[in-house]
């Protein structure tokens, strides 16, 4: 489940969250990369998003460290990790907010991360920005800003 901060009480499915941040709710193609223990990866296309979510949950519940790249990847690299040369497009910007003090207990890290998140959101508010999603990562927060419109400039400007 994901928390959509644009509507503070709304919870969306993981599949909807992934479709929105990847841009698959508008475009087709590419792959979602799910990294396992920072060493290997598995790739899923948009037709297999539910399988991607089930795979990630299964791996996490069996003790693996799981994360995904919000940028859509161009190619399925098998079990190899992807780099910036395999980014097909990105539909969002994101910020990872964790406590910089790794000597804290898990509860202290969560409290320190929450303080950093609150400070970040307060400063953003001054500029009229609000994140599209705020996700608790277990030890911190992932803050996503979905790009809603792209404005093209005039040639030669």
**pLDDT < 50 stretches:** 1-9
Q: What is the terminal-to-terminal distance?
A: 43 Å
SSE run: EEHEEHEEEHEE
Content-based structural category: alpha+beta
Mean pLDDT: 88
In DSSP terms (H or I, runs of 4 or more residues), the helix count works out at: 3
| Helical residue percent band | 25-40%
Kindly report the spatial arrangement of strands forming the biggest sheet. Answer: 4-3-5-6
Shape: globular
Give the strand tally.
Answer: 9
Radius of gyration: 17 Å
Biggest sheet architecture: 4 strands, antiparallel
| Portion in strands | 25-35%
Provide tags for this entry:
27% helix; disordered N terminus; 3 helices; alpha+beta; three-stranded antiparallel sheet; 157 residues; four-stranded antiparallel sheet
Describe the structure.
This protein has 157 residues and is α+β, with helices and mostly antiparallel strands. The protein has three helices and nine strands; from the N terminus they run ββαββαβββαββ. The chain has helices at residues 14-22, 49-61, 106-126, and strands at 2-4, 10-12, 31-36, 40-44, 66-73, 87-89, 92-98, 133-136, 140-146. Mean pLDDT is 88; it is low at 1-9.
